[in-house]
Each structure stands twice: as structure tokens, then as C-alpha cells.
Amino acid sequence: MLDKTGIAKRISRELQDGWYVNLGIGIPTLVANFVPESIDVTFQSENGILGMGPFPTEEEVDADLINAGKQTITALPGAAIFDSATSFAMIRGQHIQLTVLGAMEVSDTGDIANWKIPGKLVKGMGGAMDLVASAENIIVAMMHTNRAGESKLLSECSLPLTGVKCVKKIVTNLAVLEVTPDRGFRLLERAPGVTVQQIKDATAGRLVIEGDVPEMQLD
Amino acid sequence: MQKRVSDARAAIAGITDGMTLMLGGFGLCGIPEKCIAALAESGIKDLTCISNNAGVDDFGLGLLLQSRQIRKMIASYVGENAEFERQMLSGDLEVDLIPQGSLAERCRAGGAGIPAFFTPAGYGTEVGEGKEVREFNGKPHILEMALTADFAIVKAWKGDTDGNLIYKGTARNFNPVMAMAGRITIAEVEELVEPGELDPNHIHTPGVFVQRIFQGQDYEKRIEKRTTR
User: Fold this and answer.
1) Contact, B100 vs A130, CB < 8 A?
2) Each residue of B165-223: pLDDT tens digit?
3) Residue A114's closest chain B neighbor by CA?
4) Phi and psi (nearest 5°) for A4?
5) How many beta-carbon contacts under 8 Å exist across A and B?
6) Do the beta carbons of residue B52 and residue B206 sit within 8 Å?
7) 0.95 cut: is pTM over it?
8) Where in this chain does the entry annotate a coiled-coil region (chain A) (predicted)?
9) What domains appear along chain A, each with residue ranges and CATH number?
């Protein structure tokens, strides 16, 4: 079974040289720590920067330089800064090759819910709806089950949707799955030490298992 | 025309109860903190505020929420503000949550004379309910209307007395698009200079969009999430 860092590590293996990538808040942010040295990847933050660097040292902290999670950041050499409309032109116009974000629920047709729990938590969707509606390549990073132990991979989302038929791939603490809209979640890889049966038990939506399912390679 | 005004209090002259305001900023980064303080002091109420966020409890737009001067909030993300959540759940505050990219583009469109546009963001969700749907290239899109405001209030790093503005870092965010969409746009800047002192090649917001400008003193520029390595 993977921890959050393990999920981020596995997702980092999906990155390709030359890609512009948007990372959401939470587990996705950790992906930036594991970019293979052999490739160049540029991180976009939707508040308006390309070429986001690591967190600053205490001396480098600048109130005028934050990411979309409102954390202080640095800008790498070659970075560019722009307004919010230009930022979402990049996203809507499909100039960003990969979006990684968290989710509360994903359906086996690729619907995603991650912005609202009615009556309980209403923080807003931020840029998530724009990102999922336009990105060609969306990976969801999340735990396979919620705190109550219930599956987050469902036949249908129960929470208000963020986007429909948009998620392509899901990396959880248990597995890597591909969304095939006609057939459901196709199991691609098992996390180290996790059995197919454990994944079956933790998945409420349709699960497609074909042949031997290999264990994830992380290093 | 003299665009320069003495301070925030003079800049907000003419803002009255019930008006719609746009306020630049993302989180607490790049917010017009001097004008917000002046609005809090003024007691002007029943405001509709269009801003990406709603500040925190004791800074930014949170100050106007505390004093109950905001009747309606149009934003994309409002976490980090307990008072906001309380007023929203009790029904005291009307809230319209909009996808961030649609919010930015609706402001841009409002300033650019485009009454509405189609976007895929929000299709199939609550955001798309009741909105016209059209398919382009086999993909459904929803119609979003432009936004304008009685006053847009923005914060820039440097400006000149003709209203030309330069922003710094990610404090730019919504400020340029909102500057375009105000019937009257107020700019508060950290450094106000004479025309000619800013390089025309480096201007982010041309002065045509700005009607009032002043230099604020002693910016707090509070950091919401100081994160270091």
C-alpha cells in the first residue's frame, strides 16, 4: 500500500519531457518533488505563473509570489507571470499537457466530484471546473477509500459534480486505474503488497481486470 | 483630466449602498487593502462584491463581511473564512460561486465589450443549470455572461498619474481584467510616478482603463500561507 508520497512518486512517472503541468492542492503538489532528472517539466499555477519553483527560504519569502494554494513560492529562471484570464486561456486552450488533482469521488465513466459537500462544506470550485472541462489528460490522485472506509471509486458520484466524463487515470494508495467510459475502471497496476482482491473489495464502481495485474514500479 | 486623488477615502467617493464592486487579488495577494479599509470605515452597505476570494476573517474582504456590508458575494473559492461560511449557511449572505477561469473571462469580456461567451467549464454540474448549452466540435459548452461593475478596485505595484499600471509577481492575478470591467476603476499603487517614468513597453494595464489613482502608504501585504523549504 502506498502513502501520499508514494502516490505522488508513481504519478511523477507519467511526466514527459517538455510538458507543462498543473498540479492541484494536496497530494498533487508533492509530484513536483519527484520529477525525473532526465526530463524538463514546467509547472503552472492557475493564479498566474509558469515556471513555479520550490518553496522559498525564509529570506526569499515574497508576499507577491504565491501559488494557487496561497503558499509562498519561488519563480525559476525562465518563469513567466500573467493575469488570471491568460492563465485560463492556457488551460481552456489545451496548452497545458497534464492536470493532476485530488477528488472526493470519481465515477467509472470519468465524472469527478471535489468541490462541495452539501450542507457541510462549501469552499468553492476555484479553478477545478475549468481544469477538468478542458484538460486532455487528467490524473486523479487520491486515497482509494474515504475516512469511513467507503470506496471513492463509484458507479455514480453522490456529491455535486465538478466535471463529467473527464478523468482519464486514477492513482490511489492501492492501484493505478484507467477510466474506460464504456466498461469502467480498468485495473492497470497494483500498489506494492496489495492483492487484486483488496482492490476489488475497495472499488464500488465497475472494475475491469484483464490477465495478470503487475505491481507498480516506483524507482 | 486629473486622475490622481489624495488617498483611499477620496478614491472611493461616489460608492454608495447597493452598488456592485469588483476587487482584484487572489487570496490576500494583490488585494486593494487601502480601499477595503476605507470601505470598512465608510459603513457603505448592501454591496455586491465580485472577487476571486473573500479574504480571511480579519483581513481583506473579511473586514467587510465582519461589518456586514456585503449582501452578495461572487467568487470562485471562499475557504479560509469562517465568518463567510457562517453568514452563507445562515442565509444572511447571498453567494454565487463561479469557476475561476469563467470568473476571469467574464470580467475580461465585460471590459472588452463581449456580452457573453461559451465555455466547457461547469457543463453537467450545478454551475451549468439553467444556462444555454451548445455543442462545438462535439463538445458541450455553456453560455456565460460578461460581468461589469459600478466600481472596479485594483492594486498595482507601480503606476503613473495617467493611470498606467505595472503589477509585481502573482499579485497581478485578477487585477488587469477587473481594471477593464469597472465603469469607474480605482487603482491603488505602492509607488506613484509622473508620466514618462514607466517604460511604455512594460505597462500591464493601459491608463485608459483607470479613472482614479493614488499611492497607498505602509502596505501590510499579509501572507496567508507562509511556506518555506
Assistant:
1) yes
2) 999 999 999 999 999 999 999 999 999 999 999 999 999 999 999 999 999 999 999 99
3) B125
4) -60, -40
5) 173
6) no
7) yes
8) none
9) 4-31+84-208 (3.40.1080.10)
